[in-house]
């Protein structure tokens, strides 16, 4: 398949109608066409000069846009073979859907062990019980049409009490309920980081956050994990970011936990500079036994914005998340949300309100099992792949594994051909680094993790032996 420059220009539409650098606006529009399946995997894109002429822009604009998409893994650029949308469609019934290319990570082939997307693989018994209590409450509802753009008051109150128990006094009107943590990040990106704006993130970081910022055609700047150098970055008036994003507790993907002193410094620097600081707390409750974690980042600063969700602590199918923020921020986000979404599922919110007072104990109940799975996977990797570096983590769900040589992108493709999906590090690093890393979760049962380690070892032998690089959808993109 080859895309005619004029036809692509038509599909791009009014791509330049926005604020910010042209290359970011062009990359954002191309990204959407790729993710929505309008540019199919394997499609040959026009050469730089040809597309630039069709769009009447400088060649450098196209080159820079293509480079953004190449770093994200959405396109491939090879000398002699041009530029193509990453990964031709695999044969089989799943490919007839025209779904975005990242969905092969969420819905893999039946024979693939999925270690790229981390989430509990079954709802706990407490969830059906919570729904039963929620449905009983629904039977009593009168005088309520069911639209709650800011979230059902019962859940907003439960979230406020959840933070108060953790040392962060919170009122219900400081809480906005969302359809999961990803919607929360998308709303924050839309509110604070428009086209041409700048988001400051860790490198590496959660790829869903990068997707949210890039969807707004924003530039992304990076600092090391823990945001070392944050004070200088937010004081630089010429390059001050519009928003900063951090995962202070059980960082995705490294598992790091920021100490209290660093939290205090980050919160103080952000407040002094007037930069919104977003703390992703989705993994905060997943500590291993005997591992204490500091108070939330919001305990150290009045302006810190917290994002939470039950997708990791309970189940990914419970699409309930929230934003805790100062009241004016919640009001602003509520107006933005109402434009696209008049409210979430009330039954799910009532069930979440039943669960939230118990979420710490639910996570504690499963902590020993999570640590056992973590230890088992590390043991299997050490036995079969002794040259790999897989440091232990104090909690969370993933290992950040350094390969002894090569790069995670090409190895992830080899691994997928051997029946195991892992996430290459480049998709989590906006700086273009982390190419020697892969992210692997340890939530599967012991037998599955053993199988995965066996397949990874076979894949590594094939990779080292120079197995031919057959085109396969890369294991990048919106992983969780």
From TrEMBL:
Family annotation (CDD domains): AAT_like
GO molecular function: DNA binding; DNA-binding transcription factor activity; pyridoxal phosphate binding
Keywords, comma-separated and alphabetical: DNA-binding, Pyridoxal phosphate, Transcription, Transcription regulation
Name of the protein: DNA-binding transcriptional MocR family regulator
Pfam family, one: Aminotran_1_2
InterPro entries referenced in this protein's UniProt entry, alphabetically: Aminotransferase_I/II_large, HTH_trans_reg/aminotransferase, PyrdxlP-dep_Trfase, PyrdxlP-dep_Trfase_major, Tscrpt_reg_HTH_GntR, WH-like_DNA-bd_sf, WH_DNA-bd_sf
Entry keyword Transmembrane: no
Domain HTH gntR-type: 20-88
Protein family (similarity comment): In the C-terminal section; belongs to the class-I pyridoxal-phosphate-dependent aminotransferase family.
Organism: Streptomonospora nanhaiensis
